[in-house]
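Quick start: read one record
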Amino acid sequence: AVDGTLWGFGCNEVGQLGVGFDAQHVSPRKVPFPGSIAKVAAGSVHSIIIDAQGNAFGTGSNRSNQLGLQVEEDEDRDDYVVEFTEVPQLEEVLDVACGNEHTIFLLADGHICGLGSNEKDQIGVTEGRRNAIRNLLGKPSKYLGNIKYLENITTVACGNYNTLCIDKKCRVWTFGDTDNAQLGHEDSEPKKILIQNAKYLVVGTAHCLVKTTDQSVRAFGHNNKGQLGIGSKENALTPVELQTEYHSLIDAPANIE
């Protein structure tokens, strides 16, 4: 809300609303949090908030370490927490995006770091380092090694199993799952795609729309239900410019499909 408070509703089976343990809430409920909230993002069953001081807090499922928290296991359930708990060893966070079971943070220095599942390389770690990252247990890592050119990032977004970034030069970088052409290229590792002057992006489960500084819109990825708006239901591996006069409508979430 404009006053910095947070409200949640819907499914809460693993505490993803941050209001304690209840199965669901059919009307908005204020989330208890002592500070002012600047950013919020939600994955499949986890949620992350960034406060006004740049600290990150998570609630819900931590099954793939997407919260970066040490959570005691219970034999009857997956790991989870039911109230927002601070993500350790992380500060000066500007923005956050959540996938199905991964979380990407944008830091004040223009780098990104990630937590959670890397099954599809969605946190930017190549095959040789996957197990090491998976065992970090609450230690977010800047991904500078093989993708050290990912710096000066200004925007982050996530699909279910993929991640997208815009850098200061208005270039788009993508990595993660390639099953439905949702990266705009065929390699799961971070690569720059053929879009210049990117300004804004919205991401669904496996498709993406990018608005550029000249107000054009380009789309790529999964298109089984025509979600790209390109006049067919074929997936688009490379970005396709939309032929529409309604470009201003892109400034909204792409939703699931």
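The longest strand covers residues 24-30.
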